[in-house]
Specification:
heterodimer, A: 113 residues, mainly beta, 7-stranded mixed beta sheet, 4-stranded antiparallel beta sheet, 11 strands, 0% helix, 55% strand, B: 111 residues, 6-stranded mixed beta sheet, 10 strands
C-alpha cells in the first residue's frame, strides 16, 4: 500500500484566497483524522471521520474551515477565506479499528501571505 | 487539556537510557506514543492499554503511574535513530477516537 497520500505538499497563497487540501487514506481504514501543527500550538486535532461521517469537529478553529469525506478514499479540508494565522503543516492520518494506530500522511505545508 | 510532557528536551549518548513522562488532568484509558523526526510526519511507536498491556516497539516500553494520570515512556539503549520529538497521545475519553497530542519531548542521541 502507498500509505496516506496528501496533496499538495506545499501551498503558498494570499490572504483571502480559498485553499483546499486533499487526502487519500489507506484502503480499508475506517477512521480519518485531520491535524494542524504549529510551533505555538503543537499538533492539534481538527476533525475526525468514521466511515465517512464526521464524528468530532470541535477542533475546527472557526467557520472558515470545513472538511468533507464524500467516499472512503477521499477527504478534503477547505479554508475560505484563508488568513496568515492559518499557516501551518496540515496532516491527514488514517487508522483501522484495531488499536487505532494512526498512519500519517507526509503533510501539506501551507503558507498564507 | 493538552497533556504536558517532561522533560521538554533531553540529550543522550548512544547506549544510554531515557524516560519521558506524559501527565494528564484526566485519568488515562490508554496512551499512544509517536515519534516525529524533523520535517517528517509522526510515526506510531506503541500503545499502552488500560490494563498495562503494550503493543509496539521491542526496545521501547511504557507504564502508567498508580493513579493513571501519568504515563512514562522508557527508551532502552538508545540509538542514533531514536532522535526526534516524542509525543504521547491519549484519547480524550473512554470510547472516543479523539486523540490529544502532548506538548512533545525533543530527544537527541549523540554518538
Amino acid at each position: 500500500d502507498a500509505g496516506v497520500i496528501q496533496s499538495p505538499r506545499h501551498e503558498v497563497t494570499e490572504m483571502g484566497q480559498e485553499v483546499t487540501l486533499r487526502c487519500k487514506p489507506i484502503s480499508g481504514h475506517d477512521y480519518l483524522f485531520w491535524y494542524r501543527q504549529t510551533m505555538m500550538r503543537g499538533l492539534e486535532l481538527l476533525i475526525y471521520f468514521n466511515n465517512n461521517v464526521p464524528i468530532d469537529d470541535s477542533g475546527m478553529p472557526e467557520d472558515r474551515f470545513s472538511a468533507k469525506m464524500p467516499n472512503a478514499s477521499f477527504s478534503t479540508l477547505k479554508i475560505q477565506p484563508s488568513e496568515p494565522r492559518d499557516s501551518a503543516v496540515y496532516f491527514c492520518a488514517s487508522s483501522s479499528d484495531e488499536n487505532n494506530e494512526q498512519f500519517f500522511g507526509p503533510g501539506t505545508r501551507l503558507t498564507v501571505l | 487539556q493538552q497533556p504536558v510532557q517532561s522533560p521538554q528536551a533531553v540529550i543522550l549518548r548512544e547506549g544510554e537510557d531515557a524516560v519521558i513522562n506524559c501527565s494528564s488532568s484526566k485519568a488515562l484509558y490508554s496512551v499512544h506514543w509517536y515519534r516525529q523526526k524533523h520535517g517528517e510526519a509522526p510515526v506510531f511507536l506503541m500503545i499502552l492499554l488500560k490494563g498495562g498491556e503494550q503493543k509496539g516497539h521491542e526496545k521501547i516500553s511504557a507504564s502508567f503511574n498508580e493513579k493513571k494520570q501519568q504515563s512514562s515512556l522508557y527508551l532502552t539503549a538508545s540509538q542514533l535513530s531514536y532522535s526526534g520529538t516524542y509525543f504521547c497521545a491519549p484519547p480524550w475519553g473512554s470510547g472516543t477516537y479523539k486523540y490529544i497530542f502532548g506538548t512533545g519531548t525533543r530527544l537527541k542521541v549523540l554518538a
